[in-house]
Design brief:
Radius of gyration: 18 Å
Order of helices and strands: HEHEEEHEEHEEHEHEEHE
Shape: globular
Distance between the termini: 42 Å
Strand content: 25-35%
Number of strands: 12
Oligomer: single chain
Number of helices: 7
Length: 214
């Protein structure tokens, strides 16, 4: 079984690379988890609820706790909180982020409950010119707006997903409201070894921006 899965991962890498940039059609796709596992998109391999993508073209940003709750193994996921400790790591990750498709596992909940209504896999084509520009603008703004060396910046997709949901998700029959999103963001944390980084110590170096895709 392990050999079969490794072969499937290699197939995913070859398929994703063969697509190239010319087949990029959508900045964001939202797919129910069950459908994603039954019919994975091109470049994604699924075997016995284990998901594999080509790291040269894609990034999995799935929180391990969410993956466990969904009973799915996202191989090589970086999680939704990425910690970087020096400029080289930051530069390397930033280059990867703005040149790949990212996959996130999200869920919807009713406003008055923590119970999961449905789980979705959301993919964002960060190599798309508009998405890349807005990511870079948001990251540059975060760096320039903090006083200390260390900081963290949260990239939030909730407004974009709310817009998508307005045309795609029905309202709850009982409450008449649409479910709300959970896990609709990912965070980059830059921790330097600078002494006396008081803004960071007092929680003043946290930033957040909406990643709008339209």
């Amino acid at each position: 079984m392990r050999y079969i899965f490794q072969a499937a991962c290699e197939w995913a890498r070859r398929t994703q690379r063969s697509r190239g940039k010319m087949t990029r059609q959508s900045r964001m796709t939202v797919t129910e988890l069950d459908e994603f596992l039954r019919k994975p998109p091109s470049g994604v391999s699924v075997a016995t609820k284990r998901v594999c993508v080509d790291p040269e073209t894609s990034l999995l940003l799935v929180d391990p706790r969410d993956a466990v709750a969904a009973s799915v193994d996202f191989q090589g996921s970086l999680g939704r909180n990425i910690t970087l400790t020096d400029l080289w790591e930051y530069s390397s990750f930033r280059k990867k982020l703005v040149s790949r498709t990212i996959y996130l596992l999200m869920s919807t909940h009713l406003p008055t409950s923590t119970d999961v209504v449905k789980r979705y896999v959301v993919s964002v084509d960060c190599a798309n010119a508009l998405v890349r520009r807005r990511l870079e603008q948001g990251l540059d703004w975060a760096i320039s707006s903090v006083a200390g060396e260390s900081y963290q910046v949260e990239m939030d997709l909730s407004e974009t997903l709310d817009t998508w949901a307005a045309g795609n998700l029905p309202k709850d029959d009982g409450t008449g409201v649409r479910p709300r999103w959970a896990g609709a963001s990912f965070t980059l944390k830059y921790h330097s070894d600078a002494l006396f980084d008081f803004p960071h110590w007092f929680g003043l170096s946290k930033r957040k921006f909406q990643l709008r895709l339209t």
